Amino acid sequence: MPITNERWQATRTAVAATATRFVELVAASDPRTMATADWSVADTAAHVATIAFMYTHIVRSDEPAIPAIQEQVLATSVDTVADLNERALELFGERDPATLVERLRADVVEILRVTETLDPATVVTWLGDSKVPIAGVLAHLVNELQIHGRDIARATRTPWPVPPADAALFFEVFFVELIRHGVGHLLDNDEPPRARRIAVSFRSRHTAPVTIVLHNGQVSVEEPGEPTDVRIFFDPPTLNLMMFHRVGKARAALTGKVIVSGRRPWLLPAFLRTVRCP
């Protein structure tokens, strides 16, 4: 589906609103609290701030935001993105929460300013030499704010509701469009290419129906109508949390937030070994 003006404006609104909530959460939290097993609140905020800083460059020029890691950025896959994140955090040494909050707020304002008059379908280069439209870059930032905001909120016992329509932007505006335009090295893995075609239909109340196909190691997007092996009906916040390993697959299924059906549901694990997130 084309990126409509309505979808584009919804993405921009979600960036602004989620960033505001995120910086307020960081400002109210003890920066030393461990948000994950490896990152404190300050580290988590620095990671999100680094992404926003990089995106101020992606949306306005072809010049790399951090030249020292540009080669690593273009070679990154889902399996090596953690290494890239750690290297970026080493180069981005700021950990003062007040400074991080101001930098993140300013970069989000800059991203929205620069993209206000851009065609949201304009394709740019992303991690792993993949291609994604400008709207997808903003949708990815929304997800980063949501996922890492949840990390901080859970650690500090603070409410962190995620609107399903905002969470749906990651799947529909970023992930599907990235597959449509070219995944580059992003989904490279050691899994031997399977000759068998695996088609998985994704549906939710907040996204247009779409089918993602894995065939001979290549991933593509098809419009609904062709035969499928697996059908997934999903709640967008839960699917995102599952894909980023915050919620287990069994829990997502048992709560009814991710429902798997279809003619050959046993093919889903093989599909997800390639079509995956970090």
Describe the structure.
The chain is an alpha+beta fold and 278 residues long. The protein is globular. The mean pLDDT is 95. The chain has helices at residues 5-27, 41-58, 70-75, 81-91, 97-115, 134-156, 164-181, 236-243, 249-254, 268-272; strands at 123-125, 131-133, 198-204, 207-215, 218-222, 230-234, 258-261. The strands form 2 sheets. It has a 5-stranded mixed beta sheet. Helix 1 (5-27) runs antiparallel to helix 5 and helix 6 crosses helix 7. Helix content is 49%, strand content 13%.
Detail the topology: elements first, then pairings:
Elements: H1 5-27, H2 41-58, H3 70-75, H4 81-91, H5 97-115, E1 123-125, E2 131-133, H6 134-156, H7 164-181, E3 198-204, E4 207-215, E5 218-222, E6 230-234, H8 236-243, H9 249-254, E7 258-261, H10 268-272
Parallel strand pairs: 3-6
Antiparallel strand pairs: 1-2, 3-4, 4-5, 6-7
Helix pairs in contact: 1-5, 1-6, 2-5, 2-6, 6-7
Determine the number of helices (DSSP H or I, runs of at least 4 residues): 10
Multimeric state of these chains?
A: single chain
* Shape-level CATH architecture of the largest domain: Up-down Bundle
- CATH-defined superfamily of the largest domain: dinb family like domain
Model regions low in confidence, pLDDT < 50 over at least 5 residues: none
Report the span from N to C terminus.
26 Å
Strand order of the largest sheet: 5-4-3-6-7
Briefly note the structural class of the backbone: alpha+beta
Q: Estimate the global geometry from the Cα principal axes.
A: globular
Amount of helix: 40-55%
What number of structural domains do the residues give?
A: 2
For the sheet with most strands, the description reads: 5 strands, mixed
Total E-strand runs: 7
The proportion of strand residues reads 5-15%
Stated plainly, the CATH topology of the largest domain is called Four Helix Bundle (Hemerythrin (Met), subunit A)
**Order of secondary-structure elements:** HHHHHEEHHEEEEHHEH
What is the CATH domain class of the largest domain? Mainly Alpha
Query: How big is the Rg?
Result: 18 Å
